[in-house]
Structure formats: structure tokens, C-alpha cells
Automatic annotation (TrEMBL):
Coiled coil: none annotated. Residues 2-46 form the LysM domain. It comes from the Bacteria. GO terms for cellular component: endomembrane system. SMART domains: Glyco_18. Residues 59-384 form the GH18 domain. It comes from Candidatus Lachnoclostridium stercoravium. One of its GO terms (biological process) is carbohydrate metabolic process. One of its GO terms (molecular function) is oligosaccharide binding. Keywords: Glycosidase, Hydrolase. It holds the Pfam family Glyco_hydro_18. This is LysM peptidoglycan-binding domain-containing protein.
Length: 384
């Protein structure tokens, strides 16, 4: 498999013929919609049997999903997943679990059919949908609440048939840093006894001394020792209320990985990637401008609809473009085959355990095709 950039005048028949590939396969691999229009600068994955087969190493993959995911999208994605973290279970001030709004049973069973491990994701999300660091703090400072929460987690993973737990806490207070690390270690020690694995999601730090509420409560070294696996959320540099830029600029992601491997064994690290982009109206005004989230395939289709070329930022290793609508200029940053390829290069360079997506609610087949082409995805059987 390789990547081809669309030039002026290209069409799917010409491109397929050039590589000796069936045109239907080209259309399928790249989710090209009828009538098969293309954007100049669009990155396409193409099958190329002329190239020698690469030697692939085993790697773990994961992708977060809400229980209301489309059944079709889930079935298209599960063949590429080692783990499926289901988002999410919350908890009360007493340590009682709050289940997802939609029943997760069918997602768990479907994952097992594809030899993918379903993982219960634990978050401290409040009623407003935001992370509640005071709820975290109260739990961390009360051993009885912790005991109740861990007991309830054990009951739930057994009842539902989960294979592990992912702890996804953000905005942990700086003064709670060591308590949070101890909590993750406590969960892991209890769950490992019963055969369950425990992972933890980490915000993207570039140094131990990094300042800011998002970073100071996260001890990379301690959490790397406490958990069986870590998922580094290496995205959201470009975000809803921030200025237009790549969601996961590779120059910044590299800095995060370079720091992470000094604190955490590389065989424990899953590199998190975004499966989405943002569309900003311009000019950007801090505190006023709000970007719209969009899928990667949707972003390409929008460029086609407005007849604008897709450009590529070499430093960020990310595609972008601008277009006008109703007198307003827009700037779009998203992910394509080239940015995924760059992430795979980074994972290989640092011998990471694998990679994962936030999130898989929309299918991005080119990304999974690249991952599948470059790695042997780890699978494991489950008792049904």
C-alpha cells in the first residue's frame, strides 16, 4: 500500500489503471462517494502489489466508542481493534457507578465476536459533560469511597464481560497527583488478581515540570509504573475554542513521545490519534470563535464541494484548506492518509506498543488500511 496525491485532471479510473488496481477497490478503500469526484491534493491509499511486502511487527490497537455507535461502523472497525474502550462509566460521591446513557451490552458482545477486548472506561464526568476534578479529589481523599468504587468496578466488569478497565481522568488537581497514581495502582493490583488489565489515559506532556491544571496532576513515571498500559491523548492542540491549527501537529506529538519514553517503558505506550478535524470561521477571535467538529471523510467532501485544493503542512504533517461560504472565510484542519502514516512512523521509530483513536464513531477506512498494512494487529479469543 502507498499514498497517491490527486493532481488536476485525475479521476478514479486513471489512478486505478496507473497502479493496476481494481477501481472498485480504490473507491472502497478511500470511501469515495458517487459520482467519484476528487479534490486536488487529496491523499489516496492505493494497493501496489509491485512493491515488496514489508516485514510487519505485532502491535496493539484501540479505539474509544460510545455505546450508541452505528452497528455498521462498529462492524467495519472491529477487525482492526485489539481493544475497544467503551465510553463511559461515571461515579457518584459515594463511589457508586453511573452507567452510560445507552446500554453497552450489545457492544461488548459484538467486540468479543471479533476477538477484540471490550474495556470499561471510567471517567469523572459530571451532569454538564465536563470532567469534575472536585469529584476526583473527594474520592482520592476517602479510602472508603475508593474501596466501594473498586468493588463496584469489579462487579460491573464481571457482570458485563469486560476484559479490562481504562481510567480516563483529566484536570486532576496538582496536590492530588500522588493520590491519583496510588489509586490507579490500587485498581490494577486488585483487577490483575482476577485477570483484568488496567490502563490509564494521559494528557500530552512534554516535560515533568510542565505547568498548567491539565498537566500537573499527571505523573508520567508513576502512572506508567502503576498501570498495565497507558494511552497518550496526543491531540487537541487544535480544538473547538482555540485558533485554527492541526489537531495533532506531528512536531508537538513527537515532543510528547520523546518525553514519554524517558518515563514509561515503550512496550506500555499506546499513541492516541484524532479521528476528526475542525472547521473554523475566520477571522479567529479568542473567546468568541467556535470551531465545528467534522469527520475526515466529510472534510474531503467539503473541499470537493467548494472546489478548493487540499494543502499539506509539512511541519505539522497535517492537511488543511480554506474556502468561502456566504461571505465568511473558513479554515479546515483534519487527518488523512499522510498524517496517519506519519503517526505510524513515529510509533515504529520509538517501538511503541501500538496506537489508538479517539474516537471511532465515524469510519475512516484509509487510516485502518494503513495500520493493517504496516502492523500485525494483536487479537485474542474470548469465552462467549
Amino acid at each position: 500500500m502507498e499514498i497517491y496525491l490527486v493532481s488536476e485532471g485525475d479521476n478514479v479510473d486513471q489512478i486505478a489503471s496507473r497502479f493496476g488496481e481494481d477501481v472498485n477497490q480504490l473507491v472502497y478503500d478511500n470511501q469515495i462517494e458517487y459520482p467519484y469526484r476528487l479534490a486536488v491534493g487529496q491523499a489516496l491509499v492505493v494497493q501496489n502489489d509491485i512493491q515488496p511486502k514489508r516485514i510487519k511487527r505485532a502491535a496493539a490497537t484501540c479505539g474509544y466508542a460510545y455505546p450508541f455507535i452505528s452497528e455498521w461502523v462498529l462492524e467495519q472497525t472491529l477487525p482492526y481493534l485489539t481493544e475497544l474502550p467503551v465510553f463511559s462509566y461515571g461515579f457518584t460521591e459515594r463511589g457508586e457507578l453511573i452507567p452510560p446513557f445507552t446500554d453497552d451490552s450489545w457492544v461488548i458482545e459484538r467486540a468479543k465476536e471479533y476477538q477484540t477486548m471490550p474495556v470499561l472506561t471510567l471517567t469523572p464526568l459530571g451532569d454538564d459533560g465536563h470532567f469534575n476534578n472536585m469529584l476526583i479529589s473527594r474520592m482520592l481523599h476517602d479510602s472508603r469511597i475508593q474501596e466501594r468504587l473498586i468493588w463496584n468496578l469489579g462487579d460491573k466488569v464481571t457482570e458485563k464481560g469486560y476484559g479490562g478497565i481504562n481510567v480516563d481522568f483529566e484536570y486532576v488537581l496538582p496536590e492530588d497527583r500522588d493520590l491519583f497514581t496510588a489509586f490507579v495502582e490500587r485498581i490494577r493490583k486488585v483487577m490483575n488478581v482476577f485477570g483484568y488489565r488496567v490502563s490509564v489515559a494521559l494528557v500530552p506532556k512534554t516535560s515533568a515540570a510542565q505547568r498548567g491544571l491539565l498537566y500537573e496532576g499527571m505523573d508520567y513515571r508513576g502512572l506508567g509504573e502503576a498501570a498495565d498500559e497507558v494511552f497518550i491523548m496526543a491531540y487537541e492542540w487544535g480544538y473547538t475554542y482555540g485558533p485554527p491549527m492541526a489537531v495533532a501537529p506531528m512536531n508537538m506529538v513527537r515532543r510528547v513521545v520523546e518525553y514519554a519514553v524517558t518515563e514509561i517503558p515503550e512496550e506500555k505506550i499506546i499513541l492516541g490519534m484524532p479521528n476528526y478535524g475542525y472547521n473554523w470561521p475566520l477571522p479567529f477571535e479568542q473567546g468568541v470563535t467556535k470551531a465545528r467538529t467534522m469527520g475526515n471523510i466529510e472534510a474531503v467532501q467539503l473541499a470537493i464541494d467548494y472546489g478548493v485544493p487540499i494543502r499539506f503542512d509539512e511541519k505539522a504533517q497535517a492537511p488543511y484548506y480554506r474556502y468561502w461560504q456566504y461571505g465568511i472565510n473558513h479554515e479546515v484542519w483534519f487527518e488523512d492518509a499522510r498524517s496517519v502514516w506519519s503517526s505510524m512512523d513515529l510509533a515504529e521509530e520509538f517501538h511503541l506498543k501500538g496506537m489508538g483513536y479517539w474516537h471511532i464513531m465515524q469510519l475512516f477506512r484509509p487510516g485502518w488500511s494503513i495500520i493493517n498494512d504496516r502492523f500485525d494487529i494483536i487479537k485474542q479469543p474470548f469465552k462467549m
